[in-house]
Amino acid sequence: MLAAGLSALLLMATAIAVDVDVYHHFENHDFFSMRMMGDDGAFRWNTYSAVQEFAMDAGGEVLISGVSASHPISFSLYTYEQWDVYRSLVFQITSMAAYDETMALTCMYPAAARIPFDPRRTKNASAMSIRIPITVASQYTLQIESCMPAYNLVQAKVVMRNVAYDGRVTEHLGVDQLGLLPVYMIMTAAFVLMTTLWGIDCLRKERPTYAIHGVFGLCLVVRTFECMIKLWHYRVLSKSGRTRSYLSVGKDMCEHMTTTVLLLFLLLSSLGWSMRRRYLTQSERRIVQACFVLYVFVAMTKATCDSRNQVCQGYMLTEYVLKSLMLLGIIITLNYSIAQLQTKLENEYGRWTESKIPKMQVRLNLYLSLRYSFLAYLLLPTAVLMINLTVINPPGTWRYVWATYVFEEVVMACIFTHLGLVLRPVHPMTLDLLTQKKAT
Fold first, then answer.
1. Dihedral through CA 216, CA 221, CA 222, CA 225, nearest 10?
2. Is the pTM value of this prediction over 0.85?
3. End-to-end Cα, the chain, rounded Å
4. Which pLDDT value is given to residue 196?
5. How confident is the model over 203-243, as pLDDT tens digits?
6. Where are the transmembrane segments (predicted)?
7. Residue 280, pLDDT above cutoff 50
8. How are strands ordered across the β-sheet holding 47-56?
9. Could you give the C-alpha distances from 265 to 286, 310, 326, in angstroms and in order?
10. Domains observed in the chain
């Protein structure tokens, strides 16, 4: 589960789409006060990251408009290589001598482009527009630097655009994210089809269905809705560079709801509910209800809070612990159910001497298949992280971040497909034929 958090951080390390309003106060501090504000050392007061590591291809552009400032500033655009060195000079400064070099380092360090702005020499600055063409593909960081030791209030609007599929410079998604739209279009269509087929299969009268089939159908519905929300979210980002708050929060909430319902399905299946036995015991019901009420509360709070807040980080840790405990419980109960069925097959009924044996063998095979799907779901975050670091995006590469999403979504689709094929309602005649065959 730690791998899940690491892979999420890797995928979120770059900006997805850029259309931002900058509003920042530059305020001069001495070295000792900055040491109090920073944990690992001081950071330079006169530099501010408007955009960090946004993937752009040759032919793209950076537009800066609506600029206002109290004192002269500079807009500096750094490639990934330049920014990699520059940020080591900006952050985690541990000596006063290094901190005193603020002006020379931040305002004169080599950059792909540097645009100075002096409000005293610029007339009608609010109507001015600055365009920086991109000639080299890289991950670009836009820094705003205040080059005078004085209080400075800066406002600006920054837009970064790439070349779209139609050849126009209108695409707000980064180059490394361009594949997300087709990915979620395909995933949405696939899960709509899967949900429809599952519903048709369950509604056929000659095939008996159980409550667990309804829970799995709910998993498919929630997963389909999650893919739709993600498609909507990235389409809005692609067109405007900004997402609506309800879309961003809705996307996170749907992800957590999918996880919650899938965990509920796996836990109920491992307990044998509606497959091996009709009811759970009272203690089992209380444990399941308590776990999922608490998990839903923590996960929804995490989805709607600001990850930079310490309280929100506490919810993130709590959600991680709860999910780990639930996965551990699923492993234990699933293996226990398999062991029980194997014991009954070997000891209680003998080998193929009773009519119940074929049905029990079918259930055992179902649990074994369920365990394979669960193991795939359990190992998916680690697999995504390892493949991302070694195959798709090894260190120094960035263009194909979207392929990591493809791998994760395809594996999840395969897991749902496998569960659907294993759990689909069985015609009664199938088991009767098995019974007759073994009896003879």
1. 160
2. no
3. 50
4. 96
5. 876 666 788 899 999 999 999 999 999 999 999 999 988 87
6. 178-198, 256-275, 287-304, 324-343, 364-388, 400-423
7. yes
8. 47-56, 138-146, 73-78, 113-117
9. 16, 32, 12
10. 18-161 (2.60.120.380), 175-439 (1.20.1070.10)
